[in-house]
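Page 47, continued from p. 46.
Same chain as before, 103 aa.
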Amino acid sequence: SKIEPFGIVLIEAMSRGIPVISTNCNGPRDIINHRVNGILLKNFDSKEMLEAIYYLKNNKNFRCNLGKEAIKTIKSKYVVKRYTSQLREIISNFWINYKETNK
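Result:
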């Protein structure tokens, strides 16, 4: 897609070690580190997409490494325990700032 706010399908695929290819838009850009845990395309272009698919198809080691790094990314950033700690931190910071501005 040209616009993607988050990209749950990326998270689902990456959690299974499936290499992902996406356009370089807001959501995927926050999830994918280009050529580390997935591939980000510069443009919404079918030729560029086809080249990326063929590159993955013909480079097993690269494809496997992307999958392994994708799993690491999911385990470090997108599990419930991580979300919970981030949410607690956000709420804590909110209350600290709220108290300071409302003295």
